[in-house]
Amino acid sequence: MAIHELALLVSFFGVTVDTVKDFNLNTHTLFTEQLTIAGYTDFSRIGFSVTTKSGRTVSVMADRCGGNVSFASVKDGKGMEVEKCEFPDAESQTKVAAQCAEDPDMMPYFFIQSDDYFTLKNLVINSVLKNTDAGDVATIQIAIDALKLAEYFTAEASKILQK
Asked: Fewer CB atoms inside 10 Å of the end CB: C or N, the chain?
């Protein structure tokens, strides 16, 4: 379930299972769809908001089948968008299109993510070589907290959809 987005909630917004006050699922099929295929059940897309005990509310909309472009939209307290970040940007999309044309058997997301993974691998390798903290890299604790959120939100969303 949207594990990268959940890791961002942990990292930047302090959302953990212990800090969740409210979980609200957008049950409209445009935003949330749970499928069972070959005995495995998961979400092809999900939209929800979570409010922490400290009053911070964050929303996530993730669509596994929605294409290669992702975005983050930051809204103020009145729901007005104050910032929107899109990935990949237009320049990267052109680069990926050329790479896909050169190697049509490769899934586009490998090209989209390759530069980020190269950076990540270099950060980790350099930290090992220098015996320092990798910095700007999700920690094992962030991963554990994100996985706990995935389990919690999956159970909560499944209960809501079964009503």
From this structure: C
CA-based nearest residue to 60, from 20, 132, 1, 128 = 1
C-alpha–C-alpha distance, residues 23 and 44, integer Å: 19
Residue with token string 């050169």: 102
Return phi, psi of residue 74, to 5°.
-105, 125
Q: What is the DSSP string of 53-66?
A: TTS-EEEEEEETTS
pTM of structure: 0.81
Question: Which helix H or strand E contains 35, and what residues bound it?
Answer: strand 33-37
Question: Per residue in 9-66, pLDDT tens?
Answer: 999 999 999 999 999 999 999 999 999 999 998 999 999 999 999 999 988 888 888 7
Q: Which uninterrupted H or E stretch holds 22?
A: strand 20-25
Are the beta carbons of 19 and 158 closer than 8 angstroms?
Answer: no
What is the distance between the alpha carbons of residues 31 and 63, in angstroms, rounded to a whole number? 8
